[in-house]
């Protein structure tokens, strides 16, 4: 522990360390300017009798101004400002209260304090310091009385520096010049300086009186009781809390009351001899003090501070820019005869107020108290060990706190476990969702789920909902789940639902497209089937002769029509083009024309004249029938009912024709009867005798009704040709329609494949 000796404090008893106090609240030093006040005394009798006038005036409680005479010029600073300025009427009590009391009482809180008076001789230093000391002593003991919780110990020492010799004012026998010792830790010490313990305030006042009595005083021209030395009365104040008397820490500080000798001019004091020598020492030490103050006032730029140039500055070193609070009272004489001395004092005060001290609280540790305290503490612990008290309040509190700590730990672990479980479940759920969304199988299942049967879809959906519900229930069961985790879970569930909805919508669209393709395919298939049925129906008709034989007679025409139908069917089935059909039809037309033209030729010799109009008419009709480009609207029914149609009841037609032509038909019948006896009847291909009935009149056209029969045959042939043309046109349209449907089907299949 650092041991610092306060100047004037017995080092053997004190260990000084920084400590906190109510004022400073900590161990750090507090920088503070020296408090400088000015006290202007009234003119004394000597000055009054000398007709001096007052040259200084206090403008306010902080400003003093020079008041020149009528003929005086102001060549130097005339106004000074300080912390406090006291006029001639001010009381010492006010100077104490308003100027130095706070500084003086800092010693009660462990802070060193120094109050000293500076001024020319007879300016009122002693007068003021006596009053200040008295007031301080009163306040100190007043504070002690008002602070019963602390135990105060006050000691006093007194010295004077006379002609640069240090004398103990409380021990006149100690010698005329005490040595100053420099301790690196304790500072400057006065060897063998007596330090008296003070019992009470009276005792202190008495000791102070002793010191004053021992001080060197001499009569000068300016002061009958001029102080010829610098006097330092030091009070050491130590305080300890009474409750913790065993506590080893205490506040300790020194309070210095310094009454300087006044600067003087030999010419004014009329000093000689011893007084002159005293005056020289006084002025010399004061000059050093002024130098120290001047240097301190400029701060760190000042360099070396000549504390050691005088015993005064050596002893007051801590109070001048060190660990102390310092207040300087500069006393002034208002007399015009001391203007220069007063001005010098004011300049000194002006510099002094720029000096900064670094005061700190001093805490002391008494080794004796420390040993005593440790011994008691050891004894107490030993007693506790010997007799442990289960009902000890501290032990109970400790046990309760341990139980609370254990419970808090348990709750913490439980909460941590729940959080870990929840985090693990969340991660598993996220992995499951990610795998469901990213897995191709899952995608396929998701796609197929839309085309599943309603029951399967319901089952699957119910399973998903159950799983989600279970997941949510699991989440809800964890009531301690953090809000953020629950929020993430809800987001994932919402995302999953969105993806499911989108997949279902896509599947519905695909299903609709497939249905459309199926319908298209069905229409196409129906169309194909219809066409195939029609083709089969056409094919189911009795096959005609393979070769188209154009010969004379009705049977030949019927055969030609059947052949044409088969040929068209065959050509269609074989993929023949419409051009082929048209070509075939044109060939048939030509054959018919040839047949028609051949008939009149056979009877030209019999009816040359009468045949002429018919021939012209027949040729005109032939010219009309030859072009196949004419669009005939006759449908297939007309073709089937035509006389040469394979599907018509040929016999009925013939009969009807015969019935309708009853008068001419009688001739024919008679003629047929005649012919039957001469020629062998020709059987039809199917074994019937139709050919014999129908063919006989044409082959044997020598009868008188040959013209009528020729016309009827021609009409039938023309009707057949028109029917064939209509059928061919219809076939063309059907083939075109079939091709169009085929192309449409091909396009639809291609789109579906894409
Ligand atoms: N403020 C004051 N009011 C009335 N009288 C005062 C005042 N100050 C000083 N005096 C008187 O002036 C005289 C000189 O005072 P004092 O001895 O205190 O001066 P000093 O500065 O101590 O002189 P020195 O330096 O010579 O010792 C004394 O008689 C004192 O009573």
From TrEMBL:
One of its GO terms (cellular component) is nucleus. Pfam families: Kinesin (PF00225). Residues 364-432, 571-598 form a coiled coil. The keyword Transcription regulation does not apply. InterPro entries: Kinesin-like_fam, Kinesin_motor_CS, Kinesin_motor_dom, Kinesin_motor_dom_sf, P-loop_NTPase. SMART domains: KISc. It is found in: Cytoplasm, Cytoskeleton, Phragmoplast; Nucleus. Residues 457-467, 604-614, 675-686 have a biased composition (Basic and acidic residues). CDD domains: KISc_CENP_E. Its main location: cytoplasm. Residues 626-635 have a biased composition (Low complexity). Residues 33-355 form the Kinesin motor domain. PROSITE patterns: KINESIN_MOTOR_1, KINESIN_MOTOR_2. Transmembrane segments: none annotated. Residues 1-30, 457-477, 602-621, 626-647, 661-704 are annotated as: Disordered. ATP binds at residues 119-126. Residues 468-477, 636-647 have a biased composition (Polar residues). Keywords: ATP-binding, Coiled coil, Cytoplasm, Cytoskeleton, Microtubule, Motor protein, Nucleotide-binding, Nucleus. GO terms for molecular function: ATP binding; microtubule binding; microtubule motor activity. GO terms for biological process: cell plate assembly; microtubule-based movement. Belongs to the TRAFAC class myosin-kinesin ATPase superfamily. Kinesin family. KIN-7 subfamily. This is Kinesin-like protein. It comes from Oldenlandia corymbosa var. corymbosa. The lineage of its organism: Eukaryota, Viridiplantae, Streptophyta, Embryophyta, Tracheophyta.
